[in-house]
Design goal:
434 Repressor (Amino-terminal Domain); mainly alpha; 4 helices
Length: 60
Amino acid sequence: MHWVKDICNDYGLTQYQLSKITGIRQSTLSSSKKRGSRLDSANMMDKLRKAGINPDKYRG
């Protein structure tokens, strides 16, 4: 699975909700999922941490 989907499943969120609580654009999440991008952006990891999500668990 992809980190976006994993986070949504683990936290019971939709991709829309994940976008709203983290401030990461929905289009960014969708593009990342579509391309199969790994979670390696410091900016995205910081936003996840601020939302109370540990990004280290989802790094490939």
